Amino acid sequence: MPPVNPYSKYIKQYQTSNITTATPEKLMILLFDGALQFLQKAKSAIAEGNLKERAENIDGARKILRELMRTIDLENGNDVAKSLFKLYNRMTMNLIKANVTRKSELIDIVIEDLTNIRWGFQKAIEIQNGTVTVEEAMREQQAMDGIEHPALRKDENNAG
Predict the structure, then answer these.
(1) Structural domain contains residue 15
(2) What is the pLDDT of residues 121-155, one digit of tens each?
(3) In a domain, 128, yes or no
(4) CATH code for position 103
Protein backbone atom coordinates (compact mmCIF):
# COMPACT_ATOMS: atom_id res chain seq x y z
CA MET A 1 0.00 0.00 0.00
CA PRO A 2 1.48 3.40 -0.97
CA PRO A 3 2.20 5.90 1.79
CA VAL A 4 -0.55 8.39 2.55
CA ASN A 5 0.19 11.96 1.51
CA PRO A 6 -0.22 14.11 4.65
CA TYR A 7 -1.40 17.00 2.46
CA SER A 8 -4.03 15.05 0.52
CA LYS A 9 -6.86 16.45 2.68
CA TYR A 10 -5.78 20.01 1.89
CA ILE A 11 -5.26 19.28 -1.79
CA LYS A 12 -8.80 17.87 -2.00
CA GLN A 13 -10.20 20.98 -0.25
CA TYR A 14 -8.31 23.24 -2.66
CA GLN A 15 -9.59 21.30 -5.68
CA THR A 16 -13.18 21.42 -4.41
CA SER A 17 -12.89 25.16 -3.73
CA ASN A 18 -11.38 25.72 -7.16
CA ILE A 19 -14.35 24.02 -8.82
CA THR A 20 -17.13 25.54 -6.70
CA THR A 21 -15.84 29.09 -7.19
CA ALA A 22 -15.00 28.77 -10.89
CA THR A 23 -16.75 30.77 -13.58
CA PRO A 24 -18.63 28.82 -16.28
CA GLU A 25 -15.73 29.53 -18.65
CA LYS A 26 -13.18 28.19 -16.17
CA LEU A 27 -15.35 25.10 -15.62
CA MET A 28 -15.17 24.39 -19.36
CA ILE A 29 -11.37 24.57 -19.22
CA LEU A 30 -11.38 22.28 -16.17
CA LEU A 31 -13.53 19.78 -18.09
CA PHE A 32 -11.09 19.79 -21.00
CA ASP A 33 -8.17 19.35 -18.60
CA GLY A 34 -9.91 16.48 -16.83
CA ALA A 35 -10.64 14.69 -20.10
CA LEU A 36 -7.04 15.15 -21.23
CA GLN A 37 -5.77 13.71 -17.93
CA PHE A 38 -8.06 10.68 -18.30
CA LEU A 39 -6.79 10.15 -21.84
CA GLN A 40 -3.13 10.30 -20.83
CA LYS A 41 -3.82 7.75 -18.10
CA ALA A 42 -5.69 5.55 -20.59
CA LYS A 43 -2.69 5.62 -22.94
CA SER A 44 -0.41 4.57 -20.11
CA ALA A 45 -2.81 1.78 -19.17
CA ILE A 46 -2.82 0.52 -22.76
CA ALA A 47 0.99 0.50 -22.79
CA GLU A 48 1.02 -1.41 -19.48
CA GLY A 49 -1.72 -3.82 -20.55
CA ASN A 50 -3.92 -2.74 -17.64
CA LEU A 51 -7.43 -3.41 -18.96
CA LYS A 52 -9.28 -2.06 -15.93
CA GLU A 53 -7.41 1.26 -15.84
CA ARG A 54 -7.77 1.63 -19.59
CA ALA A 55 -11.53 1.14 -19.46
CA GLU A 56 -12.03 3.39 -16.41
CA ASN A 57 -10.04 6.26 -17.85
CA ILE A 58 -11.59 6.06 -21.30
CA ASP A 59 -15.00 6.00 -19.63
CA GLY A 60 -14.07 9.08 -17.59
CA ALA A 61 -13.12 10.97 -20.75
CA ARG A 62 -16.30 9.81 -22.51
CA LYS A 63 -18.43 11.08 -19.62
CA ILE A 64 -16.79 14.50 -19.89
CA LEU A 65 -17.37 14.54 -23.65
CA ARG A 66 -21.04 13.71 -23.08
CA GLU A 67 -21.27 16.60 -20.61
CA LEU A 68 -19.64 18.94 -23.13
CA MET A 69 -22.17 17.76 -25.73
CA ARG A 70 -25.01 18.54 -23.30
CA THR A 71 -23.82 22.14 -23.01
CA ILE A 72 -24.31 22.79 -26.74
CA ASP A 73 -27.59 24.49 -27.66
CA LEU A 74 -28.35 22.76 -30.93
CA GLU A 75 -31.84 24.25 -31.18
CA ASN A 76 -30.64 27.85 -31.09
CA GLY A 77 -27.04 27.24 -32.14
CA ASN A 78 -25.48 27.94 -35.48
CA ASP A 79 -23.36 25.78 -37.77
CA VAL A 80 -20.41 26.07 -35.37
CA ALA A 81 -22.50 24.54 -32.57
CA LYS A 82 -23.58 21.69 -34.83
CA SER A 83 -20.02 21.09 -36.02
CA LEU A 84 -18.73 21.07 -32.45
CA PHE A 85 -21.40 18.55 -31.47
CA LYS A 86 -20.38 16.31 -34.38
CA LEU A 87 -16.72 16.62 -33.40
CA TYR A 88 -17.46 15.63 -29.79
CA ASN A 89 -19.50 12.71 -31.10
CA ARG A 90 -16.65 11.60 -33.37
CA MET A 91 -14.23 11.80 -30.43
CA THR A 92 -16.59 9.67 -28.34
CA MET A 93 -16.75 7.06 -31.11
CA ASN A 94 -12.94 7.05 -31.36
CA LEU A 95 -12.74 6.39 -27.63
CA ILE A 96 -15.14 3.47 -27.91
CA LYS A 97 -13.00 2.06 -30.73
CA ALA A 98 -9.81 2.69 -28.72
CA ASN A 99 -11.25 0.81 -25.77
CA VAL A 100 -12.20 -2.18 -27.90
CA THR A 101 -9.10 -2.28 -30.12
CA ARG A 102 -6.61 -1.04 -27.48
CA LYS A 103 -5.13 1.38 -30.03
CA SER A 104 -3.57 4.41 -28.38
CA GLU A 105 -3.38 6.09 -31.82
CA LEU A 106 -7.14 6.69 -31.60
CA ILE A 107 -6.65 8.30 -28.21
CA ASP A 108 -3.92 10.50 -29.70
CA ILE A 109 -6.43 11.80 -32.25
CA VAL A 110 -8.89 12.68 -29.48
CA ILE A 111 -6.13 14.33 -27.43
CA GLU A 112 -5.15 16.49 -30.40
CA ASP A 113 -8.76 17.52 -31.07
CA LEU A 114 -9.46 18.28 -27.40
CA THR A 115 -6.23 20.22 -27.04
CA ASN A 116 -7.15 22.38 -30.03
CA ILE A 117 -10.68 23.02 -28.76
CA ARG A 118 -9.35 23.82 -25.29
CA TRP A 119 -6.87 26.28 -26.79
CA GLY A 120 -9.69 27.97 -28.72
CA PHE A 121 -11.88 28.27 -25.63
CA GLN A 122 -8.95 29.62 -23.60
CA LYS A 123 -8.19 32.24 -26.26
CA ALA A 124 -11.87 33.22 -26.47
CA ILE A 125 -11.88 33.77 -22.70
CA GLU A 126 -8.69 35.83 -22.91
CA ILE A 127 -10.10 37.92 -25.77
CA GLN A 128 -13.33 38.47 -23.84
CA ASN A 129 -11.33 39.52 -20.75
CA GLY A 130 -9.18 41.87 -22.84
CA THR A 131 -5.90 40.13 -21.97
CA VAL A 132 -5.33 39.12 -25.62
CA THR A 133 -6.43 40.65 -28.89
CA VAL A 134 -7.89 38.65 -31.76
CA GLU A 135 -4.80 39.46 -33.81
CA GLU A 136 -2.49 38.17 -31.05
CA ALA A 137 -4.48 34.94 -30.81
CA MET A 138 -4.35 34.51 -34.59
CA ARG A 139 -0.58 35.10 -34.61
CA GLU A 140 -0.14 32.54 -31.84
CA GLN A 141 -2.21 30.02 -33.80
CA GLN A 142 -0.18 30.70 -36.93
CA ALA A 143 3.06 30.22 -35.04
CA MET A 144 1.80 26.87 -33.76
CA ASP A 145 0.69 25.86 -37.25
CA GLY A 146 3.75 27.30 -38.97
CA ILE A 147 1.70 29.46 -41.37
CA GLU A 148 1.18 33.15 -41.94
CA HIS A 149 -2.27 34.56 -42.58
CA PRO A 150 -2.29 37.22 -45.35
CA ALA A 151 -4.49 39.56 -43.28
CA LEU A 152 -1.84 39.75 -40.59
CA ARG A 153 1.11 40.27 -42.93
CA LYS A 154 2.83 43.61 -42.49
CA ASP A 155 3.83 44.95 -45.86
CA GLU A 156 3.35 48.02 -48.01
CA ASN A 157 -0.25 47.03 -48.80
CA ASN A 158 -1.19 46.36 -45.17
CA ALA A 159 0.45 48.99 -43.02
CA GLY A 160 -0.34 48.46 -39.39
Answers:
(1) no
(2) 999 999 988 988 888 888 888 887 776 655 555 54
(3) yes
(4) 1.20.120.340
Is residue 56 in a domain?
yes
Q: How many residues does the chain have?
A: 160
Per-residue CA distances from 48 to 43, 59, 61, 97 (Å)? 9, 18, 19, 18
d(CA 70, CA 108): 23
Q: Which residues make Cβ contacts (< 8 Å) with residue 87, sequence separation at least 6?
A: 113, 117
Whether 5 is in a domain gets the answer: no
| Amino acid at residue number 40 | Q
**33 vs 78, 86, 116, CA distance in Å?**
26, 20, 12
- Express each pLDDT in 48-87 by its tens digit: 999 999 999 999 999 999 999 998 998 888 898 999 999 9
Domain count, the chain: 1
Q: 68 is in which domain, residue-wise?
A: 23-146
Question: How many C-alpha atoms does 48 have within 13 Å on its Cβ side?
Answer: 12
